[in-house]
Specification:
about 290 residues, alpha+beta, 8 helices, 12 strands, binds cobalamin
Length: about 290
C-alpha cells in the first residue's frame, strides 16, 4: 500500500483497530529505525498480498516433492502457512562477510551465531511493538518453509533490500549476497519500502557460476511452461537445488570426519564444526 500523505488525518479500520495514516507512517519509520538500533544491517517492509503473488510461491509447490523436512499440519509441499491477519512483512538482513565466517558455522546442534543474532533482533522488535502498541499482533516467522516460514528472498526483494542475482541469491548493494535474512509479520497495512531498480549481474563480467563445486547452474532444468512463471530458480531456471544440496551433504560428512582434529570447545565439550559451502556468495564481487 502506498501512502500519499494528505493534510487531513484519514481514519481507516484495520481488523477492528482504528489507526490513522500519520500514525501508520510514524509507526513504520520507527520500526525501520528500531530494527537498525537492534542490530539489523538492512530492513524493509513488504505487503503480504503482493508477496503471495511472487515467483517462489508459484514455483515451490511444483518442485517440492521429496523435499527434506517434515511438513507441519495440512500444508502441501511448498505451501506457506500465512498468519490469518497478516498484512505486512518486516524483513531484516544481517551481513555475513567473508572475514567473519564463524557467523555461519554450526557447532554441533547449535545454530550459527548469525542466526542467533537474527532471531534476537526480531524478538526485540516484537517486544518493542508489544510494549508500545499492545493491540498489534506480531508473528515471528520460522526459518523453515515446512514449519510455516515464508520465502525470505522474495520478501527481501519486495521490501527493497536488493535483487535476485544469477547465483539465485539476494544481492544487496551494500553487502552483495553475503547476508542472512529473517522476517516477522504484523496485522497492520504498512507502507511498503518497495523494490529497487538494481541489477548488478547484467553488466558483470565475472563468471561466478562456474565456481560452483557441484555445477548447480550448469543447465536449464525449469521452464516457464511447466512452472507458470518466467521468473525461475537462478532467474532463468538453471539453479539445481538437488546439486546444491549434494554439496551441503558433503559438507556435513566433512564436518564429521574432522571431528577429532577440528573440534570446537564449547562448555568444555568438543563438538563438530560444520561449515557449509558459500562459494556462490564469495565469488560475487558486489559489496566486497
Ligand atoms: C530450502 C533452502 C535451501 C535448500 C534449497 C535451495 C532452493 N533455493 O531451493 C538448499 C539446502 C539447497 C539451500 C542452499 C543454500 N542456501 Co538456502 N535456503 C532455503 C530456504 C529455507 C528456502 C528456499 C526455497 O525453498 N526457495 C523456493 C525455491 C522454489 O525458489 P528459489 O530456488 O529460491 O528461486 C526463486 C527465487 O530465485 C525467485 N526469484 C528469482 N528472481 C526473482 C525476481 C523477483 C522480483 C522476485 C520477487 C523473486 C525472484 O524466484 C525463484 C522461483 O521461481 C531459505 C530460507 C527461506 N525461508 O526462504 C534459505 C536461503 C535462501 N538460503 C540461503 C543460503 C545462504 C544458502 C546457501 C548459500 C547455503 C549456506 N551456506 O547457507 C545455499 C545457496 C543456494 C543458492 N545459490 O541459491 C539464504 C540466502 C541469503 C541470500 N543472500 O539470498 C536464505 C534466505 C536463508 C537465510 N537465513 O538467509 N537452501
Amino acid at each position: 500500500m502506498k501512502l500519499n500523505l494528505a493534510n487531513e488525518i484519514v481514519l481507516i479500520i484495520l481488523g477492528g483497530i482504528r489507526i490513522n495514516k500519520i500514525d501508520e507512517l510514524q509507526f513504520s519509520s520507527l520500526i525501520l529505525k528500531k530494527a537498525k538500533e537492534f542490530g539489523a544491517d538492512l530492513v524493509g517492509i513488504a505487503n503480504v498480498d503482493e508477496l503471495k503473488e511472487c515467483p517462489s510461491y508459484i514455483v515451490a509447490p511444483k518442485i517440492s516433492e521429496g523435499e527434506i523436512g517434515q511438513r507441519d499440519g495440512d500444508l502441501k509441499p511448498g505451501e506457506v502457512d500465512w498468519p490469518k491477519n497478516g498484512k505486512s512483512v518486516i524483513v531484516i538482513a544481517v551481513s555475513h562477510p567473508e572475514n567473519k565466517p564463524k557467523l555461519d558455522w554450526w557447532r554441533g546442534k547449535t545454530p550459527p551465531l548469525g542466526n542467533k543474532k537474527l532471531v534476537e533482533i526480531i524478538e526485540q522488535i516484537i517486544e518493542w511493538i508489544n510494549n508500545n502498541y499492545g493491540e498489534i499482533e506480531t508473528y515471528h516467522m520460522p526459518y523453515h518453509v515446512e514449519k510455516g516460514g515464508i520465502f525470505l528472498k522474495d520478501a527481501a526483494v519486495m521490501a527493497g533490500l536488493g535483487c535476485i542475482g544469477r547465483n539465485n541469491l539476494l544481492i544487496s548493494p551494500e553487502y552483495g549476497p553475503r547476508v542472512r535474512l529473517r522476517a516477522m509479520i504484523i496485522d497492520q497495512n504498512l507502507p511498503s519500502t518497495d523494490p529497487i531498480k538494481y541489477d548488478p549481474c547484467s553488466n558483470c563480467e565475472i563468471d561466478c557460476l562456474s565456481e560452483c563445486p557441484q555445477n548447480a547452474f550448469e543447465e536449464i532444468i525449469y521452464n516457464e511452461g511447466k512452472m507458470g512463471t518466467k521468473i525461475l530458480p537462478g532467474k532463468i531456471g538453471n539453479y539445481s537445488r538437488f546439486r546444491c544440496n549434494n554439496q551441503m551433504e558433503k559438507d556435513i560428512e566433512a564436518a564429521e570426519k574432522r571431528n577429532t582434529t577440528a573440534s570446537y570447545k564449547s562448555n568444555n565439550k568438543a563438538v563438530k564444526l560444520l561449515k557449509y559451502c558459500r562459494i556462490c556468495e564469495f565469488s560475487c564481487p558486489i559489496g566486497k
